[in-house]
Design a protein that fits this description.
14-stranded mixed sheet; mainly beta; 14 strands; 4 helices; single chain
């Protein structure tokens, strides 16, 4: 009886094996391995030039950016990021890390901390003065096709931001009327290039109330921003308060403050990433971690 059972079971096992192999007896094809995410590399330059009645201030940042799976490394060719001694920034969806290679130190904070380097610290009230923001107007709208980028099409967006900062001091009311206009051009085929560095909010030096209105509109600008040009004019007016007060008049000198901000991407290339590329987005074992405040100076106004 055991021998008969063995003879019956053997054909069943053989038949099941043939069914698993397919009608033609061939093994099922292996599941294809997904391709590795691309490593995107480009040079990023951002500049700001402010002209005031008493002089000019300028800031220029230029360096190579690597992007992999939504994280970015921006290493400046020279100089450092605003309010810090670091010249390498590792920015991802969960954290921001600044690295000062010359000092072999790094500091890590939340994902929004990098953009915070470009904003002025401080509140709306100081001493005997109190400020409020009024007349906020924000427009970010599609404006057709932009200039081709490396032979690929781009989209253009029109930007217009207006607001007033009203500061009251004993006997006077100071009005600073600001208007920013310009354009943003984005690469439609920016596959694999998206990263937190695409957040253009850091290019706008505006009060928090205006930034809150601007952020959701900028979030609708899709693609990699390859060219940004912004012009801001700020005009100061003073108004007397109390007996003898009158209409707002221009301060002396009447010439407004103007600011030009530009962003340019050049030399964009893509290739398949390798496991070794992961090291680009790490601070490295040779550096030691310090508190964010050790590398960032909160008392300095970004220029």
């Amino acid at each position: 009886m055991p021998r008969k059972i063995g003879l019956v079971i053997a054909p069943l096992v053989l038949g099941m094996a043939l069914l698993g192999a397919g009608a033609d007896g061939a093994a099922p094809p292996p599941t294809p391995t997904p391709p590795p995410p691309p490593l995107v590399t480009y040079e990023l330059a951002e500049s700001r030039l402010s002209r005031t009645p008493v002089g000019e201030t300028a800031r220029s940042l230029r360096g190579v950016v690597h992007v992999l799976a939504g994280s970015a490394r921006w290493e400046l060719a020279r100089g450092a990021f605003p309010r810090t001694r670091a010249r390498v920034a590792l920015v991802g969806p969960r954290s921001s890390t600044l690295v000062a290679p010359d000092e072999a130190v790094e500091a890590t904070a939340g994902p929004e901390a990098f953009a915070g380097l470009f904003r002025e610290a401080g509140g709306a009230e100081s001493g005997l003065s109190a400020s409020r923001v009024a007349d906020v107007e924000v427009v970010v709208s599609p404006a057709g096709a932009g200039a081709p980028f490396q032979g690929e099409p781009t989209r253009r967006f029109r930007v217009s931001v207006g607001y007033s900062v009203v500061t009251s001091i004993p006997g006077q009311m100071l009005h600073v009327v600001c208007r920013t206009t310009g354009s943003i051009e984005t690469l439609a085929a920016g596959d694999g290039a998206a990263s937190p560095l695409d957040d253009l909010g850091r290019l706008f030096d505006v009060p928090p109330e205006v930034a809150e209105e601007l952020a959701p509109r900028l979030a609708k600008v899709d693609g990699l921003p390859v060219a940004v040009a912004l012009e801001t004019e700020a005009r100061r007016l003073v108004e007397g308060v109390g007996p003898g007060g009158g209409e707002a008049e221009s301060l002396v000198p009447p010439r407004p403050t103007t600011t030009t901000v530009e962003r340019h991407v050049t030399g964009l290339v893509r290739r398949a990433s390798t496991p070794a590329d992961r090291s680009l987005f790490e601070a490295g074992d040779a550096v030691r971690s310090v508190a964010w405040e050790r590398l960032v100076r909160d008392d300095e106004v970004p220029r």
